[in-house]
UniProtKB/TrEMBL annotation, chains A, B, C, D, E, F:
<feature type="binding site">
    <location>
        <position position="80"/>
    </location>
    <ligand>
        <name>oxalate</name>
    </ligand>
</feature>
<keyword id="KW-0134">Cell wall</keyword>
<feature type="binding site">
    <location>
        <position position="75"/>
    </location>
    <ligand>
        <name>Mn(2+)</name>
    </ligand>
</feature>
<feature type="binding site">
    <location>
        <position position="75"/>
    </location>
    <ligand>
        <name>oxalate</name>
    </ligand>
</feature>
<keyword id="KW-0963">Cytoplasm</keyword>
<dbReference type="GO" id="GO:0030145">
    <property type="term" value="F:manganese ion binding"/>
</dbReference>
<protein>
    <recommendedName>
        <fullName>Germin-like protein</fullName>
    </recommendedName>
</protein>
<feature type="domain" description="Cupin type-1">
    <location>
        <begin position="23"/>
        <end position="180"/>
    </location>
</feature>
<keyword id="KW-0964">Secreted</keyword>
<feature type="binding site">
    <location>
        <position position="80"/>
    </location>
    <ligand>
        <name>Mn(2+)</name>
    </ligand>
</feature>
<dbReference type="InterPro" id="IPR014710">
    <property type="entry name" value="RmlC-like_jellyroll"/>
</dbReference>
<dbReference type="InterPro" id="IPR006045">
    <property type="entry name" value="Cupin_1"/>
</dbReference>
<dbReference type="InterPro" id="IPR019780">
    <property type="entry name" value="Germin_Mn-BS"/>
</dbReference>
<feature type="binding site">
    <location>
        <position position="125"/>
    </location>
    <ligand>
        <name>Mn(2+)</name>
    </ligand>
</feature>
<keyword id="KW-0464">Manganese</keyword>
<dbReference type="GO" id="GO:0048046">
    <property type="term" value="C:apoplast"/>
</dbReference>
<dbReference type="GO" id="GO:0050162">
    <property type="term" value="F:oxalate oxidase activity"/>
</dbReference>
Amino acid sequence: MHPVRVNGFVCKNPMEVNADDFFKAAALDKPRVTNKVGSNVTLINVMQIAGLNTLGISIARIDYAPLGQNPPHTHPRATEILTVLEGTLYVGFVTSNLPAPARNKFFSKVLNKGDVFVFPVGLIHFQFNPNPHQPAVAIAALSSQNPGAITIANAVFGSDPPISDDVLAKAFQVEKNTIDWLQAQFWENNHN
Amino acid sequence: MHPVRVNGFVCKNPMEVNADDFFKAAALDKPRVTNKVGSNVTLINVMQIAGLNTLGISIARIDYAPLGQNPPHTHPRATEILTVLEGTLYVGFVTSNLPAPARNKFFSKVLNKGDVFVFPVGLIHFQFNPNPHQPAVAIAALSSQNPGAITIANAVFGSDPPISDDVLAKAFQVEKNTIDWLQAQFWENNHN
Amino acid sequence: MHPVRVNGFVCKNPMEVNADDFFKAAALDKPRVTNKVGSNVTLINVMQIAGLNTLGISIARIDYAPLGQNPPHTHPRATEILTVLEGTLYVGFVTSNLPAPARNKFFSKVLNKGDVFVFPVGLIHFQFNPNPHQPAVAIAALSSQNPGAITIANAVFGSDPPISDDVLAKAFQVEKNTIDWLQAQFWENNHN
Amino acid sequence: MHPVRVNGFVCKNPMEVNADDFFKAAALDKPRVTNKVGSNVTLINVMQIAGLNTLGISIARIDYAPLGQNPPHTHPRATEILTVLEGTLYVGFVTSNLPAPARNKFFSKVLNKGDVFVFPVGLIHFQFNPNPHQPAVAIAALSSQNPGAITIANAVFGSDPPISDDVLAKAFQVEKNTIDWLQAQFWENNHN
Amino acid sequence: MHPVRVNGFVCKNPMEVNADDFFKAAALDKPRVTNKVGSNVTLINVMQIAGLNTLGISIARIDYAPLGQNPPHTHPRATEILTVLEGTLYVGFVTSNLPAPARNKFFSKVLNKGDVFVFPVGLIHFQFNPNPHQPAVAIAALSSQNPGAITIANAVFGSDPPISDDVLAKAFQVEKNTIDWLQAQFWENNHN
Amino acid sequence: MHPVRVNGFVCKNPMEVNADDFFKAAALDKPRVTNKVGSNVTLINVMQIAGLNTLGISIARIDYAPLGQNPPHTHPRATEILTVLEGTLYVGFVTSNLPAPARNKFFSKVLNKGDVFVFPVGLIHFQFNPNPHQPAVAIAALSSQNPGAITIANAVFGSDPPISDDVLAKAFQVEKNTIDWLQAQFWENNHN
């Protein structure tokens, strides 16, 4: 017997569905080890909870080390809404290539515990913990069961195989050896 | 000058939009006073953050008194994903009138801190704090900027004007004086 | 050979599709035996007509015994539009937990033959035949090929297994023995 | 004060909405006078019931004179589901330019009272009353609050201004004077 | 192993996807042989590029012989946007059965090289090359990965099996022998 | 009189709509002057053709100077399909942060005249003209009437006001003075 799939994911026989199909012991209350830019995203999406399939939402805990950041990234299929549980975050997003003077406007805000902020679908955004001594924690929700994440530096400079350094040197208006240096870094993913 | 509206809500001139249109000092870190069934839902939706318009997501803090509950309710336009921040919750939802034996199945789970649970769009669900001494707190996200909430008891027995007691007595298979008694209660809303 | 499925339902090879895939001898002209609350819903959805898959509509005949009702219920995935074929119906729905004074408003109407009424997606609604001597009949259409139906009393008091009577007693502000009595009833489905 | 509009239609202040915004005394039980091809469509859409706005459904009564037809037409924004209330209908639709042998397949069926048939979105379809002595009546529902209707003969030969007869003669492989004759007819609308 | 399918089409394992899944050597720069009404549509949709699945777009080259036309047709699931690469086109579409005087309005335009025109979803439209000596070429894009096309004459007069000539004679207000003559033509498809 | 708006854009009275509302003399056949990275995008969207509103498509001509590029960018609300009219293009996109080994895969292809390539919604992509002597030209279509474009370098290094160089230095693993140098560049938009 092969499984029925909906939207690419297995769809269980309704007679066999149970509460565990809508549940994950995700330990979102527990701090995570952050990566070298100082963050960790623990995303609970349709890969973790099969019952989320087609339902258009997911949730994440984000940990920030002191001075850590969730670096500039986009979600190709979701808007994000975030609230700060612990610490302080400096957050922002940049608008698209609108006609000037609205072009590439950077909207930023310092968020304290309990504040809420919205990152519209597809826009480049980041969160940064400006506190050199204390970690920060946020809960974020995304408007897709499979929102995707594209960390800009990783996708541009850490792709497999690398993008041609000719292309990137001209795109970023730097020397090719700067691109080569960037491409030689280890671009660590912070999504787990 | 009258405002441009999209989806019934004012759409600001792009030149005048700023970070505050995507922000709310919502104090989601602060406990709320619960109502008489022992809960309080603090929902941050498009009414609180204009920038959420059309973006399909909202977030809420839910407080539960000891033995308090967020009573059986539905969201007509959203799926909900919830994580427990403090305490323990007994949660559940009931499936629709599917063919037996899947008809009106009750799926329930005891959630501890950090657990995640999903309530599919439109299904009747509740959360109950089984601890007689400690409050509980959850963060929930909903897949609409205006999800709506229908508390079953309030809508059925507390509507304005009341639904005919003839109709309700037969629907709930009780005497009319039981319906009259139910309709005489004060059905307090827990959504703020 | 396993079948291709779209949206969880079998999708026939286009070469083998024929008119019968879009047809059902549904006998919607024939009266149905009503259940103990005095109604019967004969729904023609994607389970009856495979060709409805992904097309977002279904149709139903509803029979009402004298003084019978289609008791308070919701459709989690559809708006309903209804027209009366025979008799008279007293119909209504209740709005969601909007800010007062719009909160839980009950909108009702007496419908005569040929009248049309709309029940918006996800809202609790009912139809009642106020005539003690004559049955009533309606045709209803729903904006989904699989709209779902949740009869409130059945889902709340007749779920399998039952919801805890502690939870329901507090939610409905009645004694636990009232809940126990309600849960002991036979909650008959009127959807066929 | 100018009105709020959603989707191009006036959206009333929620405080002022009432049951009549979801109601129409449409007299769908009453026979209509049919046009010269022998049919009449009485459509109840968002123009008749403001509360249908955004809700994705509408309903119609269709009257057919003896040997009358609802001639080949499409709904650009809706699937249709139809049930026969009185008489007999010969109905059909034609598939699109699929690869042969599935190309332009004509699927037809004779429908008796109580039968249900589906016309998928955008496909050319018709209903014909083959009975020379008795009228027929159907109720149809459409998956849009504003489905649109395009009667093929009217749009092709009765447009204002006319399409060039050079274009149509070649498209329909007939002489220009046949097109001229067709364009000289009075192409009566049967949608009211 | 059977393949995973999404939306009816095979969905490759993400580990095996490569650039060729998003590519087609479609030769859209090359003239095509036109059919007997003088056109050829070379459509690149999800059948040609598997990676288009769910992404909601496709592209086509259209060739027009001198005095050739892409005859009146609809796309049941897509809006079309077109730009002229070579030659001149006389294009138009007809609105639906709106209330008079907007009913069945014919909107037309002569397009020169570099002009852009839009054909809204589901409306009957055509393009005609008025030049008796030079061919014309256009690039068109459609808002679906599987837009469908219904050539009006082919679907109405060239279906398999034919629609009853009784029905068509009355619908088009012509003699049955005219219908018979039309149905005897060879209705050649111009979509490849 | 204030205008009716749908989706934020003016919706004309149907009685006043004409063919010009669906037309633009866009001169897409004419070469454009390219910017300093060697490209120019001439996008025809809902701002240029009001009749595109809600219809979900737009079209663009892209000019590439010899060795010019349309640098890495995303469309937050659209998939793109592209065909080469003149010259040769080296194109590619990078997948999102999928689990390794599918993480940040770079899919690239050399396109010749007439080839077609797809850039899925929200993914970072570029086109580069590898020919040092000849320009290249493409037509691209996007699955939104207002797709948006985010040029990565411009949004990250050229925003107004600038993103903190502390944040960017850590995100891109370079010295702050490299960021300062990048932020001092003139980031020219190539969308017109």
